[in-house]
Automatic annotation (TrEMBL):
<dbReference type="GO" id="GO:0005737">
    <property type="term" value="C:cytoplasm"/>
</dbReference>
<keyword id="KW-0963">Cytoplasm</keyword>
<dbReference type="Pfam" id="PF14974">
    <property type="entry name" value="P_C10"/>
</dbReference>
<comment type="similarity">
    <text>Belongs to the UPF0456 family.</text>
</comment>
<dbReference type="GO" id="GO:0009791">
    <property type="term" value="P:post-embryonic development"/>
</dbReference>
<dbReference type="InterPro" id="IPR026317">
    <property type="entry name" value="P_C10"/>
</dbReference>
<protein>
    <recommendedName>
        <fullName>Protein C10</fullName>
    </recommendedName>
</protein>
Amino acid sequence: MAPASGPWRPPSQPATQIVLAEVIQAFSAPENAVRMDEARDNACNDMGKMLQFVLPVATQIQQEVIKAYGFSCDGEGVLKFARLVKSYEAQDPEIASLSGKLKALFLPPMTLPPHGPASGGSVAAS
């Protein structure tokens, strides 16, 4: 029989929704909003600079929340949390919605190039 303090187990689906909401709320905290604004200003909407400046700040903000729920306080903990959220998105529209809101907080809006896939152009037939 395994000891009571056995291996770490991920939060349930309802608990994941709560953690996700807390993470989003953490981005609204005045000190975190300032940190994110500064990072976005440094990134100037350049995807490479977003990865350099914005993503580390967003990761730190998430780490501060999820460590209270047993996730490790490092990049691996954030990745585990992201995978857990992703696993529940298809089953739970609220988690899917919150996940979209979280991503919108630190990822720039994706725009399609002027010539979309329908234009044909440089796509070779196989």
